[in-house]
Design goal:
Radius of gyration: 22 Å
Number of strands: 13
Length: 332
């Protein structure tokens, strides 16, 4: 009888923690680092998703903007933090996947749990006082004045920068890169006339497009972009037929090494809460983005495909410090 009781007790001690390991109940606020300035694409969607998750977690998610070095400063803060699940990163997954290639941070996608929310597309726009009425006229100007026309983007490793380098590759021209500390500052620079051109995500430009403070010339995609309360933006393939679109996935990232119950809880909440969130769907529709939540292997596959494209684009253009092949990214 005593042996049977001891055996049963041992079984209980083994299985009780496993049963509880899928549930995480944080007992203090969670910090989510946005490694870009307030108001940009990462800041926007991170705040929306955080608001949706707070009720289910039962804790406040505090957003901290920490821009610098194309997002690597804020991301390093998360890498260096205690792996207890209370410090999250956020941003564009292509940035996270190419930090090591660009020589910014010693980290790769496999170091992270990925939670993707929306895919953003890039729009190239100009100040309304410029003479450029469509992308064809701007393309001609780029070619006539190589390296002279300033273009604002969110930084060296940003969606806008990748977009411009893609355009440069397919359009055979040079431009003057003017990096800012985030998408919103880059857009504001163009609106104020500090730069004549801005190349950034549609979600960062829509308010200024609706207010007619910017003139969109093309969406860097193969299909037109419909923007609520604005209209249609033509695809860049109307001028560069071979151009390949690049959907920029955004999300929240948690470094590996956190407790299993944190990952299990976030996996479930991302699927159940974010995956069915009308608030996130409405955000995507309003900001010219695509609602496309993913977690686990699905998120990893989407992230890796995008990272391959971006990493090799930088390498072929001589921007990378390390060959993508050396960090496990084969040429696509």
């Amino acid at each position: 009888m005593r042996k049977a009781f001891l055996a049963m007790l041992c079984v209980m001690l083994v299985f009780v923690p496993v049963a509880a390991s899928g549930e995480w109940k944080p007992d203090k606020p969670v910090t989510c680092i946005v490694p870009w300035a307030a108001g940009g694409s990462t800041d926007q969607i991170t705040r929306v998703c955080a608001g949706e998750l707070e009720g289910a977690l039962g804790q406040k998610i505090v957003i901290v903007n920490q821009p610098g070095a194309s997002g690597s400063v804020g991301t390093k803060t998360v890498i260096d933090a205690e792996r207890d699940g209370y410090t999250w990163a956020s941003g564009a997954v292509a940035d996270l996947g190419t930090y090591k290639v660009m020589g910014f941070l010693d980290t790769v996608l496999d170091d992270w749990h990925l939670y993707l929310s929306v895919a953003n597309v890039i729009v190239i726009s100009v100040h309304p006082d410029t003479p450029y009425k469509d992308f064809g006229s701007l393309l001609a100007a780029f070619r006539e004045k190589p390296g002279e026309i300033p273009v604002a983007t969110a930084g060296e490793v940003s969606g806008g920068r990748v977009g411009m380098e893609s355009l440069r590759k397919y359009g055979d021209f040079e431009y003057k890169h003017v990096p800012y500390a985030g998408g919103n500052p880059a857009v504001v620079a163009c609106v104020s006339g500090e730069t004549p051109v801005v190349c950034q995500l549609a979600c960062e430009q829509v308010d200024m497009l609706r207010a007619k403070r910017l003139r969109p010339l093309a969406v860097l995609d193969v299909s037109p972009l419909e923007v609520k309360d604005y209209g249609t933006i033509p695809p860049v393939t109307n001028w560069l037929s071979d151009f390949k679109s690049i959907p920029f996935y955004f999300g929240i990232f948690i470094p590996k090494g956190v407790p299993n119950e944190v990952v299990g809880t976030l996996d479930k909440l991302w699927t159940d809460v974010i995956g069915n969130s009308q608030v996130v769907k409405d955000y995507a529709l309003d900001r010219g983005a695509v609602f496309d939540p993913a977690v686990g292997e699905e998120a990893k596959e989407k992230a890796f495909a995008l990272t391959q494209t971006v990493a090799w684009l930088y390498y072929d253009l001589g921007r990378a410090k390390v060959s993508p092949e050396e960090v496990g990214i084969p040429r696509p």
